[in-house]
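Contributing new complexes? Match this layout with manganese (II) ion.
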Amino acid sequence: MKYTIAVLPGDGIGPEVTNQAKKALDAVAEAYDHIFLYKEAEIGACAIETSGNPLPKKTIEICKKADAILYGAIGDPKFDKDPSLKIRPEQGLLQLRKELDLFCNVNPVKAFDQLIKNSPLRREIIKGTDLVIYRELTSGIYFGDKQSSKDGKKAYDICTYSEDEIARITHLAFKAAQDRKRKLTLIDKSNVLETSKLWRKTVTKISKEYKGVTLEYLYADNAAMKLILNPKKFDVILTDNLFGDLFSDEASVISGSIGVLASSSIGDKNSLFAPVHGTFPAAVGKDIANPLASILSAAMLLEHLGLHEEADAVERAVEKSLDLNITTEDIKGKNKYSASTSKVGDFISDYILNQEDSSLNFMNIHAGQSTII
Ligand code: IPM
Ligand code: MN
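Output block (do not edit by hand):
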């Protein structure tokens, strides 16, 4: 089959890791006889530099026409120093979410056995964790009316939700729970916030259509604690835009490395696949950033296109790289045995292409003698 993929590498390490995801997709294309046509477009700080606009019209057009979007990261430290700047890289991402109505952000968090030792949390707490966060992405406080007073001494951000906005992501979250451990936890502050009360009412009503799924409610403050104390208890977490932003970063600690977490942002017509990590300015141009999150976001992209076997092949290749410790320095530590960004990408693509006959190669790779690494 032929697919058009919009590629938005963005800023910082975005281009470096996205290149490795493309390598993995190229290997999939060759092994499974597909054609992936990449259409590259700018977003974020690089787009501001070339056109003054963090989300040029052309980028929106390319994304709308594509079968899926592969996204890297955006941001530049020079913008962080001055929060009052009117044009900022993040606006590109927020506008893209709104423009394409990517209302459902899916963040799977798994404790990879091979990475447990990297987590600051104790092994017995995180081992076996397998949860997914469904974060509403196009409404709430992010997109409500906002204003600063002229004298700069007052400001507000309004949080709004409609029943429909809550309902559409709730259905997706319940459907996911049906195929998983059949538990859904709604995280809110319904003891304080009106929007949270609407979330509870709407989600409770919809839960009647999903009898096989147990619905549990947690206040956000309590959930923040429980997520770290006992992450294994969670299956599907459903929450609004701002809480979802916080909880997906908190949950990333459980995986042992934010460098392996991928996410998708789904709408009715378009969908975007991205690593959870950001631009990692200190690593730019050094070929040291972990490409696994970007490669796993390519796997999510394949899954979304209905290419299940192909997605499995990418995931297996990632597992293998972790098994064999062919990993970047964030996982392996700064020593001569850690692999570069591009070498990890080479290994993954090699494994996808030679799954049957490469066991011999792997021994060599491990001994550091292979030409692949
Ligand atoms: C994310 C990011 C964005 C957000 C930023 C870059 C605007 O943190 O995708 O989680 O807050 O949504
Ligand atoms: Mn975030």
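Reviewers usually confirm one structural detail per submission. For this one: The chain has 15 helices and twelve strands.
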